[in-house]
Amino acid sequence: MTTPKTELLKPGLRLLFIGFNPSPTSAQTGWNYAGPNNRFYRILHESGLTDRLYAPSESRQLFDKYDYGFTNLVLRPTPRASDVTAQEYREGATRLRTTLETYQPTFACFVGKGVYQQYARKQKVSWGFQPADPSIHTRLFVAPGTSGLVRMKLAEQVAIYRQLAEAVCR
C-alpha cells in the first residue's frame, strides 16, 4: 500500500496525532482533518498546542514548525470510521505499533477513544495519558475525536487537549 499524502512522519517528532483513517476530503486534498465541520485546528489553538488558528491546508506547517506528525490507524480513506473492517483495524494496530517503535515520537495523541481502543484492544479507556507501554518510548494520550459528529461540547474537548498541551509545550 502506498503512503497516503496525509501521513507526515519523521524520527523524533514531538507529537504524533493518530486518527481512525483519512476522510475522503483529507485523502483528496492531502490536508489532515480537512472536513468542513472538523474542530481539530480550533481545539489545538484553544488548548495551547498552537500559537494561532491554523487551517487544514496548513497542516504541513504543524509538521515543520512544531514537529507534530500525522498518521492513522487505518490508511484507507472512508466516509465513516464504521466503514473500516475488523481485519483492517487489526492490521492497522500492528502497523501503528511498528510506526511508534520506528519513529519514537515523544507523545502520541489518539484522536478519539475508539482509535486507542482498537490499537490497544481494550474496552475500558479513560481520557488523558495511558499507562506506560514498556515496548515503546512514547507517552500515549487519548483525546476526544474532533469530527463534527462528536457530541461533546467544545469546551470539554479543549480542556482534555489542554492536559496534553501542558505536557507537550513544557
Fold and architecture overview:
This protein is α/β, with parallel strands linked by helices and 170 residues long. It contains 6 helices and 5 strands; from the N terminus they run βαααβαβαββα. The chain has helices spanning 24-29, 40-47, 59-66, 86-103, 113-120, 154-168; strands at 15-19, 68-72, 107-111, 128-129, 139-143. A 5-stranded mixed beta sheet has the order 2-1-3-5-4, sandwiched between helices. The longest helix has 18 residues, at 86-103. The chain is globular, with a radius of gyration of 14 Å. The termini are far apart.
Q: Any key phrases for this structure?
A:
single chain, 170 residues, alpha/beta, Uracil-DNA Glycosylase, subunit E, five-stranded mixed β-sheet, 6 helices
Write the layout of secondary structure elements.
Layout: E1 15-19, H1 24-29, H2 40-47, H3 59-66, E2 68-72, H4 86-103, E3 107-111, H5 113-120, E4 128-129, E5 139-143, H6 154-168
Parallel strand pairs: 1-2, 1-3, 3-5
Antiparallel strand pairs: 4-5
Helix pairs in contact: 2-6
Domain Uracil-DNA glycosylase-like: 9-157
Enzyme class: hydrolase
EC number: 3.2.2.-
Question: How many helix segments?
Answer: 6
Physical arrangement of strands within the biggest beta sheet: 2-1-3-5-4
Determine the strand fraction and express it as a percent band.
Answer: 5-15%
How many structural units, i.e. domains?
1
How much helix, percentage-wise, in residues?
25-40%
SSE string? EHHHEHEHEEH
In terms of per-residue confidence, which ranges show pLDDT below 50 for 5 or more consecutive residues?
none
Main beta sheet, described? 5 strands, mixed
Q: Tell me, what's the shape?
A: globular
The CATH architecture assignment turns out to be: 3-Layer(aba) Sandwich
CATH class: Alpha Beta
CATH fold topology: Uracil-DNA Glycosylase, subunit E
Number of strand segments: 5
Fourth-tier CATH superfamily name = Uracil-DNA glycosylase-like domain
- Mean pLDDT figure: 92
Distance between the termini: 37 Å
InterPro entries: MUG/TDG, Uracil-DNA_glycosylase-like, Uracil-DNA_glycosylase-like_sf
Protein name: Mismatch-specific DNA-glycosylase
Keywords: DNA damage, DNA repair, Glycosidase, Hydrolase
Pfam family, one: UDG
